[in-house]
Amino acid sequence: MAGRRRRRGAGRAVLAFLAAFGALTGAALAGAAPAGAVQKGVRVAPGVTYEEFDIEAAKGVTHAHVLRVDLGNPRVRVDLLYPGAVGARGQVSAMADSQGAVAGVNGDFFNITETQHPGVEATGASVGPAIAAGRTLKAAVPNGQRFGPALPPGTTTEDVFGVGTDRRARLDRLTLKGTVSTADAQLPLGGFNQYALPVGSVGAFTSKWGSVSRVRATCGTDTDRAAPCSTDTYEVTVRHGRVVSAADTPGTGPIAAGTTVLVGREAGAQQLRKFSTGESVAVEHGLVAAGDGVAYRLAVGGYPVLSGGQPLPGLDDTTSAVRTAVGIAERGRRVLLLALDGAAAYRSGLTIAEVAGTLRKLGAEDAFSLDGGGSSTLVARKPGASTVSVRNHPSGGAERPVPNGIGVFSR
After folding, report:
1. Residues 41-68: pLDDT tens digits?
2. For the whole model, what pTM was predicted?
3. Which of 74, 93, 223, 259 reaches 20 to 30 Å from 236, CA-CA?
């Protein structure tokens, strides 16, 4: 393809940057994204740059879009993009503009369809834990209930990419810890604002869940997402600390502020049936980090692919696809947001092993895979613009609504 620089020789980098560096006036890029031709390292905002380039991959050339984010710059921060509720979806560009982000990418895998449970509404909720602006939105579903490709060995749905209150990015694991207490009993909390509850557990849903049906939370099992929905369920509504109503089937509709809806399945349902109207109930919940205990401002689910500069063992090196991922460099002070182009000429994409290798070549020490395929979207403002533009070609021809993303903010 015209204008492509190719690196030759065994052991040399596979990245072939299309910008003709001898002509810094903006040579056109073959297969460029909607934003048009760019040069390497175009400034989006203070501490944020954008670039695009070709990658010579095992199954053909693919095109990458990258945001480099300097968290060492006090004017820069990252936070979760989401449409205001866990059980809802929005386009990355719309979420970025509504929250004032200068750039961003799509985030976690999510409950996109319910073909296995006809008549049960898909929630649109994400798989893993989520924290936005320092507030916990949800916990992780059981491993067997996730949507997306198979997890690499040793990883779980509790794995997150996060940025702490210390302004450093890191990979971690966030586990739900909580209780439901009455005068007579204390039950472990098995879920929080998540589309699938562990078998035999009680889960809590708050106003952050949104208005989508809670029935999906009682379908499938911890190891089989396609298993039938439970026939033994119960729901209790707690308002301002007291039981106000109960039902045999999980409900739908918005949950008011100050209200918590408890959903139980199997043994959890049997425990909730013991609650009586007017009874005092206390619900406590929190996400406990496996790492150094720094509080998180942002956390989003996915799965790790690179740790300490080394790819995780057992990464898939055969299945190529359009991908989105995030890399961490300079001990958490820099973040790399990568999204591949979904245009027909580049749709062969990368394997997960190639994603890890690419981010390592770009300087990442740790890296984390996010949702890909039709969800892969990278947005950034053009010079002088007050709104973002989609920089890659989504493989479905248009932006897919997603539950969350990573937003970049600069002032």
Report:
1. 899 999 999 999 999 999 999 999 999 9
2. 0.90
3. 223
